[in-house]
Amino acid sequence: MTDFPEALADTATSLALEFGTSVERPAVLASVLERLLVWQSKIGHDFEELLRRFRERCALTGKQVRLTAADRVLTGVAEGIGDGGELLIRTPEGLRRIVQAEEVRVLGQGG
Question: How far apart are CA 5 and CA 24, in angstroms?
Answer without folding.
Answer: 23
